[in-house]
Amino acid sequence: MINLVDVSLRYGEKVIYTKISTTIGARDRIGLVGSNGSGKSTLIKLLLNEVEIDSGTVERPSYVTLGYLPQDGIEVKGKTLIEEVATAFEDALELQNKIDEADEKMMEMDTSSEEYYELLDQIGAWEQKLDTHEPEKMKSRIEKTLMGLGFATSDFGRDTGEFSGGWQMRMALAKLLLREPSLLLLDEPTNHLDIISQQWLEDYLTRYEGSLIIISHDRAFLDVVTNRTIHLSMGALTTYSGNYSFYVKESEANLEILRKKAKNQQTEIQRQKDFINRFRGNVKKASLVQSRIKELDKMEIVKLPPQEKKMFFRFPPPPPASAKVIELTNMSKSYGDLEVFRGLDFHIEKGDRLAIVGVNGAGKSTLARILAGIEPFQEGERTLGINTVLAYFAQQQAEELDPNKTVLEEVEQASADAGREESNPRAVLGALLFRKDDVFKKTTVLSGGERNRLALAKMLMQEANAIILDEPTNHLDIKSKEILQDAVRTFNGTVILVSHDRDFLDPIVNKILEVSKTGTRMLTSNVSEYIERIKRENAER
Predict the structure, then answer these.
(1) Which of 54, 390, 420, 459 is the most buried (most CB within 10 A)?
(2) What is the pLDDT of residue 459?
(3) What SS3 class is residue 7?
(4) What CATH code would you report for 324-402+461-540?
């Protein structure tokens, strides 16, 4: 369907691709993976013909249609939700308008005229083409898609300008799915979805008739939806004939084989050098020595691929904690007329590893802020345990960095605020991949991933026995998420997480706090077990 042949691209001194080649077939479901900055989003733009390559060719047949969902930046207004999403069927709506206009025109025409029969034939052709769109199913398809992505029927008549950025992205995704292009290009499609909507999208994409290329840092999502993986690293492209877990296993096995080959080769080289050195002065062995020197010169050295830098960190050891960490009693919270919580009662105990889940807009981040003590509420009480020491990572914290400070100054200030004179900000920043002159960058020039890592570095300046993390994996690649996951797993304190990434959450959490419009409930399970429970409950209704 689409072929990339020996494509090379660089931006100044930075090499993006070095003669990469691949083919995208008619039913491929591709996971596009690699660390931040490896060229994943650039490859999407290249397919969309928005990037001019230095050399090579991109073969794209004219019949191939592409649909692209960016990470963010989409905003619409002026139409109702239903009207906006119905624009996905613009071709069908235009055909229907033509048929309606022609019907009116025919009523005024001479039924015996040649023009009348020509127009009748044209209407027949239009109706035949319209049938392929199944217009009688359009309304139900639109409603089903919107509800699958988390919209309520009460939203259908609302102006699109009333919806937040995350819901705007869901609208864009709905239109894209309804258009059914030959190739869907999805850049982090689950970023704005809650766990239930993400499950719906997984099911939809597994049945999708076209091809998919997905950039996602959600390993579980990639495992379900994809059957092929393209890995970008250091300018090279490698294809694996399986999902993300297959790619991990296969790439590690290939690397191990390469390591053994390199080790065996070095052993052989040393053996040959020992022979050469031993008999270099022996006239009788001169021809053998020369022969082996030539062999060494001709030998193609096995080289291990360059390894990308890895992030590494640990949370500071927690101070002693009391049995009760946080308790909310009869808590109510509203924003004006919008009631978020009423009469909320629950407590978190020492050692709990809790995931707060629920549909977008249910109040997960609000609850996290209330637990952290930075969000006021109208009624009830929030009580901390006697020895509870909290550290909080806010979803928007990475966006609230001081633009006048450097990376190092931000972390030094956090260290001073926490009263940790013995801390080493440079070492923490180095562990989070801020090396050498990176620490002197102004916060305004940092990428989304760098800003998140800096916010984590500031959090690591605090000694706490309970940590609250609100969407900590946003903008982190899969490898960085795994390292954060390991750090949270080894933290010997209480953990409260807001996240929709079940692959990240499952090995960490032992309790689920479900937040909904009808209240909350505490469940002892991980996220996958919770999802299965929801499916059973829905089936029983």
Answers:
(1) 459
(2) 83
(3) strand
(4) 3.40.50.300
Q: With contact defined as beta carbons under 8 Å apart, do 46 and 122 qualify? A: no
Question: Residues 34, 213: contact at Cβ < 8 Å?
Answer: no
Q: How far apart are CA 418 and CA 397, in angstroms?
A: 17
Mean pLDDT (the chain) is 87
Smallest CA-to-CA distance from 397 within 462, 336, 332, 335 is with 462
Segment (H or E) for 528 = helix 527-540
- pLDDT tens digit string along 25-73? 888 999 999 877 788 989 999 999 999 999 999 998 877 889 998 877 7
Output the six-digit token pair for 528: 């996958």
d(CA 410, CA 365): 24
Rounded to 10 deg, the angle between the 407-417 and 448-459 helix axes is 20
211: left (phi over 0), alpha (psi -120 to 50) or beta: beta
What's the pLDDT tens digit per position in 357-380? 988 778 888 999 999 999 999 999
How far apart CA 29 and CA 426 sit, in angstroms, is 42
> CA-to-CA distance for 377 and 369, rounded, in angstroms?
10
Token digits of residue 189: 């499609």
Residues present in the chain in total: 541
Residue among 160, 169, 192 at smallest CA distance from 361: 192
Task: Tell me the pLDDT tens digit for each residue of 474-521.
Answer: 777 787 788 889 989 999 999 999 988 888 999 999 999 998 877 788
- What integer is the mean pLDDT of 430-438? 82
Please check whether residue 327 is in contact with residue 165, taking contact to mean a CB–CB distance below 8 angstroms. no
Contacts of 199 (CB under 8 A, 6+ apart): 531
Please report, for the chain, the start and end positions of each structural domain, with discontinuous segments joined by +. 82-179, 247-298, 324-402+461-540
Side chain identity at residue 475, one-letter code:
H
Instruction: Locate 157 and state its tokens.
Output: 């008549």
Residue 482 CB contacts under 8 Å (≥ 6 apart), including other chains: none
**Beta carbons within 8 Å of 34's beta carbon, 6+ residues apart:** 40, 231, 232, 233, 477
CA-to-CA distance for 60 and 50, rounded, in angstroms?
13
Query: In this structure, are residues 310 and 479 in contact, taking their beta carbons and an 8 Å threshold?
Result: yes
Cβ within 8 Å of residue 126, ≥6 positions away? 95, 98, 99, 102
Question: Residue 468: phi, psi to the nearest 5?
Answer: -115, 120
Do 391 and 467 touch, CB atoms closer than 8 A?
yes
Residues forming beta bridges with residue 357, ordered by sequence position: 514
| Contact assessment for residue 326 and residue 367, using Cβ atoms and an 8 Å cutoff | no
